[in-house]
Amino acid sequence: MPNSVHKKNVFLGCAAMLASTLLFTVMHTSVRHLTSDLHPFEVAFFRNALALLFFIPIIARSRGTLLKTNHFKWHLLRSAFNIVAMLIFFYALSITPLATVQALSFTAPLFTTVLAVFILGERIRLRRWAAIAVGFTGVLIIIRPGIQPVELGTILVLCSASIWALTMVIIKRLSNTDSPLTITAYVTIFLTIMSLIPALLVWKTPMGTQWGWLFFAAITGTLAQLCLAKAFAYADATIVLPIDFAKIIWGSALGYLFFGEYVSAYTWIGAVIIFASASYVAIRERQLEKQSTGHSASLNKRDS
Questions:
Q1: By three-state DSSP, how is residue 235 classified?
Q2: Could you give the CA distance from residue 4 to residue 185 in angstroms, rounded to a whole number?
Q3: Are the C-beta atoms of 93 and 28 separated by less than 8 Å?
């Protein structure tokens, strides 16, 4: 829902952001639980297919106008990258502590900023490059290469974050012409179709309570996306973004309660560094965007 529909309310924005962090972590916990019996690729398919059930009435209500676009190929390309990132991420969730997954996933905005330079030709100055370098230093603190074996799960999370960053770059381009609902509709449809193929290769029909967990993962994931959209509608990104760090707090708590996972001091230190640098980059980009918009508005006013 566009920002114009909501009056700015910092409390509601922060509450919605906090709710989204909890819901995302609960979804990840559900996926982790399900992958003890079902293959991560199959869980990813049901996550997408059940989410599509929520979206079908919206598409039907629009009578197909929601799917009108002049950039079908870009939607397809975005979805292709997205499904690869999702499959890798779900597999990483099945073998990696929740808190570690959350901590390393904070690198996605750093990868997005770097890729925007090479793909979109955006200019980044020294302060943001420095913040990016600091963020990846946090990654080294978590994985400690040369001191301990680098685990497959950590590599997969970083690969997923870098591929997810590619989708963010494409979304930036699509958002200039297509509405958020159109972008979401296409990715939901394509992800369902694309995730079916790898799921069939490892298919095992869910039984009993597994169906309940699959629906639970789909519902919590969908609600998390809704809360995230509401958070940015009620308050500026610079206000609600720091609350995203709660993901690692929820991840460490749920990981301990359900899987007996302990979070090392290195993971906490690395997570703080990565998140702080990613937040700085995001906030700085937002400030520069506002300055650019204000400058353009003043020039237009002067010309008129």
A1: coil
A2: 22
A3: yes
Partners of residue 48 on adjacent β-strands: none
Determine the Cα–Cα distance for residues 169 and 154; give it in Å rounded to an integer.
23
Query: pLDDT 10s digit of each residue in the chain, 304 long?
Result: 444 445 677 888 889 889 989 998 999 999 999 999 999 999 999 999 988 888 888 888 887 788 888 888 998 998 999 899 999 999 999 998 888 898 898 888 888 788 877 776 777 788 888 988 998 898 899 888 777 777 888 999 999 999 988 887 787 778 778 777 788 788 889 999 999 999 999 999 999 999 999 999 988 988 887 788 778 778 776 677 778 888 888 999 999 999 888 888 888 998 899 888 888 887 777 776 666 665 554 545 555 4
DSSP string across 110-127 = HHHHHHHHHHT-----HH
- Report how far residue 1's alpha carbon sits from residue 64's, in angstroms, rounded to the nearest whole number: 19
Contact of 70 with 117, CB cutoff 8 Å: no
Token couple for 125? 């100055």
d(CA 273, CA 269) in angstroms, rounded, equals 6
Tell me the chain's radius of gyration from C-alpha atoms.
Answer: 20
- Cβ count near 192 (within 10 Å): 21
**Per DSSP, what are the bridge partners of residue 148?**
145
Residues contacting residue 84 through CB under 8 Å, at least 6 positions apart: 163
Domain boundaries, the chain: 3-303
Q: Compute how many other C-beta atoms are within 10 angstroms of the C-beta atom of residue 37.
A: 13
Distance CA 302, CA 185 (A): 40
- Number of Cβ within 10 Å of residue 297's Cβ equals 10
